[in-house]
Amino acid sequence: MTEPERDEALLAVADELTVVGQRLVALSDAVRVRAAEPSGQPSRGSRPVPPAEPLSPEGPTEAEEEWGAEDEAPPPRDLGERWAAGRVLAWVGGAVTLLGVVFLLVLAVQRGWLSPTFRVLGGVGLGAALLGAGYWVYRRSGNRTGGYALAATGFAVLYLDVVAATTLYGYLPVAGGLGAGLLIAGGGLLLADHWRAQPLAVGAVLGCAVCSPLITQRPDAVLIGFLVLLQVAAAPVQLRHGWSRLTVAAALPGVLAALIADMWALVLPVDRLAIVIAVSVVALVGVVVATMTARVRPHDGTTAIGMLVASPAPVLLAAPLLERVEAGFLASGVGAALLVLWGAARFTSSARLPSRFVATAGAAGAVAVVQATTTFLDSSTWAIALLCEALLLVLAARGLRSGGALLGALCYAAVGFCAALVHDIPPLALLDLSGAEGVPGVLVGLLVTATVVAIPATATRLAVLPGLPRAPVLWGFAGILLLYATSSATMAVVLLVREDRAGFLTGHVLITLSWVVAAIVLLLRGVRVSYLRMAGVVLLPVSLAKLFLFDLATLDGFARVVAFLCTGLVLLAAGVRYARLIAGEAND
How many domains does the chain have? Predict the structure, then answer.
């Protein structure tokens, strides 16, 4: 840059700084004028300064969410403490008022105070008065925090009055009570949407959700229905504005009530079918709202994922409330719905869901399928079913080139292997004749072998773990599992032919020889491939250790002679062949 050009650039910067300084001075004067006004309100003839930029289509900013309106700025710093104290007093007053209403309704029933009609009408009158006061405070006095607190308390009183009229007095049928509750909750959230006030929405929802159980006094299907209504009513507003706190406040009470209802129904004689239907509705609404949130508000992925994970949990935990087949179908339905969501987002371009949300849906569906499998089948067949599902997922991972599907296959294989250690191929089967499992042992051993080979091979092919080809610990662990599975299958096959002491000894001879042969094959194939040679170098000492430490102590008579002679002859032949290959490599 030449000297004149540099001088022009410096002058331009100086001009910009001058303009910024003038704007800051004007802003400082405006703040001083507002702070000097006695009531903190603008003068009668003045108007609020319009915002410099239009609202973002994504919703209000953090400041708008905190103060509840697009045209209300935070107070000056010297008044901040007084404003905070006012907000706390207003909301605490609303909470105490709600508790007083709840206690009055419950105590009036217990003591016989007044008539049920008078109680219901009194609740309607109190709620309407609080709503009117909130509207007046918001519009006339300019105290928005007080208006929010009064309006939220009024809507909560009306909602709780409907809950009491439905559950305590029987004035409304359940369907009518739920309809009236939906209208009241929708009205409160519509007002919050009109005022662009997240505090009003959260306060109304939390007031209804926290106090409703105090009226019903039991976590039954009706209570769950009233709590789900809050989530349904809040969904359009939270999707429109992206209010994450409202999303949590509306979804969490229903999930918690459903979980408590599951445990409640296990110990008390209640209508279990109604509980199952209610928690199923909680799951359905939660998954739908989570999916809509993820699509409309993709930046708010954490909230949507949390709802997707939490919502199906009450349904899966409700399995003990049903018969075995019914519980299996329930878990299968949950798994199918989540996997359909995953597939639709994975294979169609119209879904437009975040990748993390889609992966979470697939993982949750896989968990539900595991529960369905273990519910439908007896524990003796869990290993076979889970290992077959793991192999199917490996095939899906290869076809779709999906690391998520391969991770699911690994999880299925791990659970299936743990089940196999208990039922089909226990360690006792290799140490004692009494642990033989017959045909299931053969089948499970072969399935474990196929899984242990397929998963690392597919992971290497898809390059989901860049360091896998050079990870000796992982390959060593896979090798141990492979040796255990093949040994168990070999022993099970031999014991099918001859289930006595001689068959047990023959099985160990064959296991030792198979290990030695596998080590030699790896060494011969590893003349030019280093990782195969290293595998053979590791397996050969392991085979000899088994021969001298286990076979020598366990085998007797002719079996011991056969084991040592065959092993020695194979090693001699392999040594000669390996030496010739090395010599040929050297000459080349």
Answer: 2
Q: What is the mean pLDDT of residues 277-296?
A: 93
Is residue 194 domain-resident?
no
Q: Residue 399 belongs to what domain range? A: 380-494
Please state, as a whole number, how many other Cβ atoms lie within 10 Å of the Cβ of residue 577.
Answer: 13
Domain boundary among 494, 512, 537: 494
* pLDDT (tens digit per residue) in 552-564: 666 666 666 766 6
Average pLDDT over residues 417-425: 89
Estimate to the nearest angstrom the gap between the alpha carbon of 330 and the chain centroid. Answer: 19
Tokens 């000297």 belong to residue: 3
Q: What is the pLDDT of residue 586?
A: 53
What are 489's two structure tokens? 């299958």
* Closest residue by Cα to residue 408 from 368, 457, 446: 368
End-to-end CA distance of the chain: 64
Contacts of 467 (CB under 8 A, 6+ apart): none
Give a yes or no: residue 521 inside a domain.
yes
Residue 92 has pLDDT above 60, yes or no: yes
474 found inside a domain: yes
The 10s digit of each residue's pLDDT in 530-553 is: 666 677 767 777 777 777 766 666
Domain boundary among 455, 478, 494: 494
**How far, in whole angstroms, is CA 473 from its chain's centroid?**
30
**Numbers of helices and strands, H then E, in the chain:** 23, 0
